[in-house]
Specification:
This protein is α+β, with helices and mostly antiparallel strands. The protein has 6 helices and 3 strands, in the order H-H-H-E-H-H-E-E-H. The longest helix is centred in the last third of the chain and has 22 residues, at about 85-105. The model has no long low-confidence stretch (mean pLDDT about 90). This is DNA-binding transcriptional regulator, ArsR family.
Length: about 110
């Protein structure tokens, strides 16, 4: 891998959708609530937040698109949960990718 490839690989990793989704304090607060609630409908997740339910729903959509949350329609409700295994797989893949980059571009002395 050439130096330019290392740089691109590292910046791609750090620009990952998962990290971008977690940069918003409201989404982190929503995620914290979802960890506490477990599988829950959007109305339950939105309880206690100053934002409208539609805003919370939009934040959850961003978390879902980033692979952090999974949602399922059950009747008229949408039930959402933190997708821990998917997060773990993504972080493990990033760790392995970073090991390869570090070994090639900046090994320990």
């Amino acid at each position: 891998m050439q130096t330019e490839s290392y740089i691109q690989s590292c910046t791609d990793m750090l620009d990952d959708r998962m990290f971008a989704a977690l940069q918003d304090p409201a989404r982190v607060a929503i995620l914290r609530r979802m960890f506490a609630l477990g599988r829950a409908d959007i109305s339950s997740i939105a309880e206690g937040f100053p934002q409208d339910r539609s805003v919370i729903s939009r934040h959850i959509r961003i978390l879902r698109e980033a692979g952090i949350v999974s949602c399922e329609n059950v009747g008229r409700q949408t039930l959402c949960d933190v997708d821990g295994p998917a997060i773990l797989r993504r972080l493990e893949a990033m760790t392995e990718q970073m090991r390869a980059v570090v070994a090639a571009c900046c090994p320990e002395e």
